[in-house]
Write the structure tokens for this entry.
Amino acid sequence: MDAEDQLIVQLKDSKTRNKAFSTLLDQYQERLYWFVRKIVITHDNANDVLQNTFIRVFKGIESFEGKSALSTWLYRIAQNESIRFLEQNQKVTFSSLDEPKNKLEILSQDNYFDGDETKLKLHRIVEELTEKQRQVFQMKYFDDLSFKQISEILDISESTLKSSYYSAVKIIEEKIISP
Amino acid sequence: MNHKDSSFNSFSDKKTENSTKLHQEKLGYELPDNYFANSKAEILQSVLAEEKVKKSIFRLNTLYAYPIAASIVLLIGFTVWMNLHTPNTIVNTNTSIVEATDVQVPEDEMLIQSLLVEDEQLDDFVDEYIVTQAIAENNKNEEQIENLLINSLLINDTLLDNYIEDNLTDVLIL
């Protein structure tokens, strides 16, 4: 039994659950925070979504069957929570999240964004990618997930993901080089 | 001009161990001081609150639910059994109550008996109870009147004695 299996067993046992959950937070809190932050943009939103994510994880851990890796399951929950959050707040904050300009406006207004021009440029380029390219680029480059994991989380074939990723990298490098 | 910003060097072969540092350097995302430590504490607190709610429901299930369910089943079973076996007894009892008119049925006893009476028989049961109570009350009143009369006669006799004694005294003095 490897470390992840042990952690799952401990999470499912009411006697060891709290300690195991603390371990789970140590392992995944930071990673999931950044994963969520890139979707919901601002720190406050990411904080809310992260809390909801872990509460959902806690509630659902007993029903986790181990069909996928624990990390994949966690990322899926985080992604679902992020989407749910965006849908709930669409009318209030994200009037049209699909528009890159809007997203950048929200980003530049966040107190926890160090908005120099270079970083805004990267955000702008990333937002101009297709949704699939953006997702796979962010998950691969920033979240350091494997193509296999991304494939399981997004339910997209690995070959499609690889193609999208390399296209995204090419576009970003070209646009950064260009004035 | 093919100038490549140093912070964007080679996206295809990036390796950064610190996720937070990567996000700060490349995307300009910042965090409050000690964010992850504070957030962890908050999440654990929220989760513990959730667990308390969950536990309280769980306790109800194991500790109380089965005994409560068993009690309800026993109560229903007892009621059904009583229903099947008591209607005649009740009628007999009621008849005997009606016959023995000097016996008053206590109110509590009537309420308990009424639980065992079927809906169709409830009106008759109530009527019988009222009649029984009325007759018993009437008997009681008659008894009280008799006692009063006897007492009054006794009192009159006493007064008469007093009157006679007083008259006798008067006669003797005169």
In short: Chain B touches chain A at residues 1-5, 7-8, 10-12, 14, 16, 19-20, 22-24, 26-32, 36, 39-40, 42-44, 46-48, 50-51, 54 (CB under 8 Å). Residues 1-16, 89-102 of chain B have pLDDT under 50 and may be disordered. The helical segments of chain B are 19-27, 35-85, 87-99, 107-115, 119-173. The CA atoms of residues 15 and 22 of chain B lie 9 Å apart.
